[in-house]
Amino acid sequence: MTKRTDILFEVKGCAGIIILNKPETLNAVTDDMLTALSLHLDKWEADDAITRVIIKAVEGRAFSAGGDIRHLYDCGIKKEYDFDFFAREYSLNACIAKFPKPYIALVDGLVMGGGVGVSFHGSHRVAGEGIGFAMPEVGIGFFPDVGASYFLSRLSDNLGLYLGLTGIRVRQADALWSGLATHACRSEDLPALEMALCQQQDVDETLAQYSSSPEMGVHEKQQTKIKELFDGRSLAQVLKNLERSAKQDEWAAVTLKTIKRNSPTGLEVAFRQIKQGQSLDIDECMKMEYRILRRILVGTDFYEGIRAAIIDKDGMPKWTPASLVGIDPADIDAHFADLGENELQLS
Hints:
Helices cover 47% and strands 11% of the residues. It is an alpha/beta fold. It has a six-stranded mixed sheet, sandwiched between helices. A three-stranded parallel sheet has the order 4-6-8.
């Protein structure tokens, strides 16, 4: 075993195992973790004795609650933007999506942002009973990144758009139903599943032996509404659909209120990136997100969102512009413009 303070690596049988190991920060993804993970994946890809990779977290309430946003806030306030962190993170996300061996994420706990990026691009995603998946970035003036434009855009019936615009949490049943997870498993069975996966037997057969079938989730029950109300060629059309339905339907009213709390710029960016992501491969999505990222970090909403959420904790961000009415379409276009020599380079 190779020991670090925040991430562990070990080999058991035929499996290379990654363990997120900093529960006091909810396993927030750091630059050092990204570097170490990349190095081990390269090593294990070349090792014929390793036939699959497993990623999990130490016991706690989170698999990984995202990235180290306080670090990014501190850098941005000083205008020392850490673009390189995201370049490494997005490159790793694309690497995981294309990893040639089974990459199995055992996710039981809160998983958001950067935590999603190191798990949900894997070939096999196992949801424990405690999973809480969310991409809530628009609530802090950011956007759903780490490849969300790829995996959210591929969810059926406008579910990805709904999740990206609301940031709402997904539990085990809906993670499985939606395809975010490939399998569900009782939490108490996850250790046994891990041990079985370390044996030299078929991954899919092993997962099938330990899989469970949870009852219908809350989002599946709203499937028809999500499909119809989030069907629009623009964010404005989706909001009109919700406003019209909200007069008679409490779910639509709550959903509309949730969306309107979020950054107007973040909402417009998220809508466009998820729509565009439908026709892009993983590398193209990561390059698009890096273009957006470079513009978001030199803006204002991200820092205002973090201030309101974790610095002052007043929950009252003052977005710029304050409403969707004030959005200049040219400003949104600029988020997606080519970066020239600063384009993300992927191997």
